[in-house]
Amino acid sequence: MRPKPLPYIVIIVLAVAAAGFYATKQNFWRTPEAETAVDRNDRSARAGMEPRTPQFTEAGGGREVLYWYDPMHPAYRSEEPGIAPDCGMVLVPKYADEAEALAAMPPGTVMLSSRKQQMIGVRTEKVVMAPVQRTIRTVGHLTADETKIAHVHTKFEGWIEKVFVDFVGMRVRKGQPLFTIYSPELVSTQEEYLLALKGKQILGESPFERAALGSASLLEAARRRLELWDISAEQIEELERTGKVQRTLSVHSPIQGYVTAREAYENVFVTPGTEIYSIVDLGNIWALAMVYEYELPFIRLGQRATMSLSYLPEKQYRGRVTYIYPEVDPKSRTVKVRLEFRNPRMELKPEMYADVEIQVDYGRRIVVPAEAVLDSGMRQIVFLARPNGHFEPREIKVGPRLDDRTIVLAGLEAGEEIVTSGNFLIDSESRLTSATGSMTH
Q1: 3.40.30.10, 3.40.50.1000, 2.40.420.20, 3.40.50.2300: which CATH number matches 110-130+364-440?
Q2: Is this structure's pTM higher than 0.70?
C-alpha cells in the first residue's frame, strides 16, 4: 500500500522553518570581524549602493593588511577576513608594518602589543653582573683527628706495678705519668750503663788512647740502648746523678688528650705488642661530609666551611676543607670530604652529627632568573625585550644553577633586558612566526 503524499501546506511550513534555521545559523557565526567583502557587497547592493573592491585596510585603524591567516594552522591564508573552514577559528590579520619590522629582526622575533603583553603576563628584568656565591649543604659525621692519636707501648717486656691513669675518658697532660713498670731487661741495661760510666771515668785519662776510646764507645752504646727504649734524657741524667739502678720506670703520656682505650692494670705482664693506652687530642676535630658527585667540581682544598649542631643552632664553627677522598660511594653516589675545625672548649665530640655548609665563590658572573631560561635539553633560549614590543630569541650557554638564579657563561651581556615571565607563550608565538615564514618560502 503506497504512503499518502504530504499536504502541500505541510511541505511549505517545513521549507520555511529550514530557511529560518539556516539564516539564524549564518547570522550567529557571521560576526562583524568575520564578515567578508562579498557579504558587504551584497548588503550594499540590497541598500542600493555601489559594491566596492576589497581593500587590505580592514582592521588596525587603517593599517595595511597583507593577508588574513588561521592562528591554529598558519598555512591557511585568505585575502579577506572570515572563518577558517577547517577549525572555525576567526582569521587574524597580518599587517604590512609588522612584516617589515620583523624582516629586519633576527629569525623568530615576534611583536606583541601592550595589551597582549598584559594579557599573557609579560615581565622583564635587566641582566646584571654580580658577585655569585653558592652554599652546599650536607651532614657531617664528627670523628677524631687521626694525626693526633697516640698509642702507648713499651719496647721491652715487664710487669706493670702502679697505675696513675685508671679509667677511660680521663684527660691527661703531655708528660704526665701513666704507670710504672718493672723490667729485668731495663734493670740490666741500667747496670751496664753505670759500669760503662765508671769505666770511662777510670780509663778516660789513660795514657793508652785505644783504651780511652773503647770506654767512651761502651758508654755511648749503653746510653743509646736506653734512648731506643724511650728512656728520657731526664731519667738518664737522674741515673747518672744518683748512680743507683731504678727498679721501676715511669712511662709518661706523649701528648695531651683523652684516654680512649686502657689495658694498664697492676701486676699485668705486657710486651712490646700490647697497646697499653690510646690517647686522642680533641683540640682539632674532623667532620666527614658526604657530597654528591655533581657537586664535587665546586669543592677544593682550603675552601671555607661552617658547621652547626641541631640543638645549638646559634653557635657556628668555622673550618676548611682539608681532604677530598678518591672514591665514590656506588649506592649513594656521594664522595667523602674531610673538613677540619678547631675545638678549644671540647664542645665537639666524636660520633656527633652536625649540619655543614660549604661556601662556593664563583666571583662576578652574569646571572639571570632561572625561569627566564627555556631549556629544551639541546638548547637554552632567553627572549630579549626590544623597543616597540619586539621580543628576540637568543641562544645562550648556561652554567650552574643557584637556587632561583642561573649563571650565564655566554650569549648575554650586562644591561640587556630579558623576559622573565610569559616567555613560554612568547616562545609559542615565535615558533608560530617561524613556521609561517617557512611555509611562505
Answers
A1: 2.40.420.20
A2: no
